[in-house]
Amino acid sequence: SEIFTTDNFGRMICFTRHPLDYDLHPSLPTFEAKDNWLTRLLSNWHTEELTFKELGVAKHVIRQCCLMGNQDRMKSSIIRIGEHMNWPFANDMTIEEGNKCIDDALIGFPTQRWKD
């Protein structure tokens, strides 16, 4: 693409869940080995045993290409990513109005299930 260059990188916004709350959606690719799906996907290492090299590749992809959010902490993740990207709330909303807008959008979304 002409938009993305070595000086103008694209970023992927990625929301993950706690690793213990991990069920695969039927439309996602599956791998023969069932040990670490995300590491296999990001490192493109589908069948052989995973090593620290593949883990390093996967971590590099996440560090360089992703803005990470946590689905269990969706509201705070949205606010943090918006601040990182320097995105103002729409229609000149105040912070309180913007927070209410996020709350309204997340009605029915599962809240935090895991405690650290």
* Rg calc: 17 Å
> How would you sum up the major sheet?
2 strands, parallel
Mean pLDDT, nearest integer?
82
The SSE string, one letter per element, is EHHEHH
Q: Helicity range of the residues?
A: 25-40%
Q: Which percent range describes the beta-strand content?
A: 5-15%
| End-to-end separation | 41 Å
Instruction: Provide the spatial order of strands within the biggest beta sheet.
Output: 1-2
The secondary structure category is mainly alpha
Number of continuous helical runs: 4
Question: Would you give an account of this structure?
Answer:
The structure is a single chain. Helices cover 37% and strands 9% of the residues. The protein has a two-stranded parallel sheet. The protein has helices at 37-43, 52-65, 74-84, 95-105, and strands spanning 12-16, 66-70. The protein is globular. It is mainly alpha-helical and 116 residues long. The protein is built from four helices and two strands. It starts with 11 loop residues before the first strand and ends in an 11-residue tail after the last helix.
Summarize the structure.
The protein has helices at residues 37-43, 52-65, 74-84, 95-105, and strands at 12-16, 66-70. It is mainly α and 116 residues long.
